[in-house]
Model the fold of this input.
Amino acid sequence: MYQDLAEYYDEIYSYKDYATEAEKVVSLIKNNLKSGGNKLLDVACGTGKHIEYLKQHYDVTGVDISNKMLGLAKVRHPNVQFHQADMIEMELGRDFDVLVCLFSSISHLKTYENLSKALKNFSKHLKKRGVLIIEPFIEPGKYISGGLHGDMVNKPDLKIARMNISERKENLAILDFHWLIGTPKSINYYRDRHEVGLFDIEKFKSLMTDAGFEATFLKNGLLKDRGLYLGLKK
Ligand SMILES: C[S@@+](CC[C@H](N)C(=O)[O-])C[C@H]1O[C@@H](n2cnc3c(N)ncnc32)[C@H](O)[C@@H]1O
Done:
């Protein structure tokens, strides 16, 4: 989805209220930030939808692994700096006051080993007393196998039906999406399979602590079932 189907990403997630989500993120930052600056790094920024609102408050930089997603973000924000990098390995050579990683992007790391590496790298990119905000995927105990999910787009010149039945392989959620995309030129079928990590909350927090953060999990996050991790860099 983040490569060949990137152009449909904003369409399929058009139900998301990025403005309200960004407002909550800003309020959380305001209540916790003590590093003195206003530089924010959006890791796995995708097409830059949160940045639209975050840049009204902060000096924003975006990172994503996908050149296609970044291409769309750059068109949306010609004055924002973007870097193509894997969050585990990124080396931006400067530090930030705030680092956010939203909409379950962290779950693409799949394993605790990768998660630990990413958290240490996030810590490296944050100033002392800086703020880390991570929106995870669903916690292992709440993920239901066998659930049928569907998202539809119904515009005059674009029809999309995307469906999946949620599956699970131990601590990996299998999201095997079937897409049917119709335009006036043609109707095409695509299959787009993701394996994402179902991370335990206590284990996640302990890896944050190891990476140098005071860690909290907030049950009421941006989306109903996901929560938010808040890290304060020691
Ligand atoms: C669900 S999208 C979220 C995008 C954006 N944050 C949003 O809220 O719309 C997940 C994003 O994570 C990016 N991603 C996946 N693995 C990554 C990695 N290892 N490092 C950096 N970005 C990654 C994908 O390219 C994609 O843009």
